Amino acid sequence: MKNIFDKIHKLEEVSGYSKHERLVQGFIDAIDEKLLRQGDLLPSVNSMIKETGFARETIVKGYKELIERGIVESKNRMGYFVASENTNQKLTIALILYAFDSVQETFYNAFRAALDPSVHIDIFFHNHNIDIFETIVNKVAGRYATYIIAPMPHPRIAEILQAIPLNKFLMIDRYEQIAGDFSYVVQEFEQSTYQVLMELHNTIKQFDELVFFSRPPDSDSPQEILASFKKFVADQNIKHDIKTKYIAGSIEKGKVYFSTNDTQTWMMLKDCKEQNLILGKDVGILSQDDDPIKEIICDGITTYSTDFVQMAKKAAHFVLTKEKVREVIPTALIRRKSL
């Protein structure tokens, strides 16, 4: 450890360096010269105070900057460790998403584009599995400057997220209540779904039946959508059916199909083509979440969606400023040929 302190003391000869800058640069120099390697335990705050004569506040601030740059990590009750030997990175982000589908890809691309290329992003996917989610959170806690997390509805979510410092945490996409004052940029599912169905009411009434494909409660489909569907068909006396899975070849003329799963939507479109059914006339299709493919395929699929690019830009602003944000991005109906 003496070499570390020597590096810090040597920087006293460099004019213009504050104590904080000497401490940070001293560690960086030690890592660059391979005196410290990834995984090495660093001196405690008390040891640093004793060896350097710096104030506790200065030491803590220095370690905090090194953590935010992803160079150092803090392990609860164990101390500070070298997390990375890449000393050039200035800002690190842990981005935890559901899965890398087209919607998440849209968010990521806009998020990446809104940040300087020097910002380092590590991306993780929990696939709506609470055990995987917990493993990821425990792995990244204390190692990053910012945590951008898309949670899932689960009783253990609030407890798991306690490992993340709230001042560095931004909840995206789906809102889940947790203790404390935290930032979020999310979408809303229940009221927006009902509103969209009401906007489509006159068109839906031209068909014989409205069919909704509801996925299990432990899936990635928000259960609030099912609640809105049930309320809509009851309020408007709409003949309807609720299914759990679309069976290939089962498309029927005179029905509107509402799906939150893209794989099912593609199967329906294939069946329409094979049976020469005209979208918007013989069969109606409504899909959740918009992307460029749905704008083009079959002359356009009617969707309702939040603006994931706007969500990504607001997330990037949080990363750069750490300004508190609590915002629900509006959901909009996008009418196209399919309905």
TrEMBL record:
Organism name: Solitalea agri
Entry-linked SUPFAM superfamilies: Periplasmic binding protein-like I, Winged helix' DNA-binding domain
Keywords (alphabetical) are: DNA-binding, Transcription, Transcription regulation
What is the name listed in the Swiss-Prot or TrEMBL entry for this protein? Answer: GntR family transcriptional regulator
| PANTHER family named among the record's database cross-references | GNTR-FAMILY TRANSCRIPTIONAL REGULATOR (PTHR38445:SF10), HTH-TYPE TRANSCRIPTIONAL REPRESSOR YTRA (PTHR38445)
Q: Which GO terms describe its molecular function?
A: DNA binding; DNA-binding transcription factor activity
**Which Pfam families does the entry link to?**
GntR (PF00392), Peripla_BP_3 (PF13377)
Enumerate the spans annotated as HTH gntR-type domain: 17-85
SMART domains, sorted:
HTH_GNTR
Gene3D superfamilies for the chain: 3.40.50.2300, Winged helix-like DNA-binding domain superfamily/Winged helix DNA-binding domain
Q: Per the record's keyword annotation, is Nucleus included, yes or no?
A: no
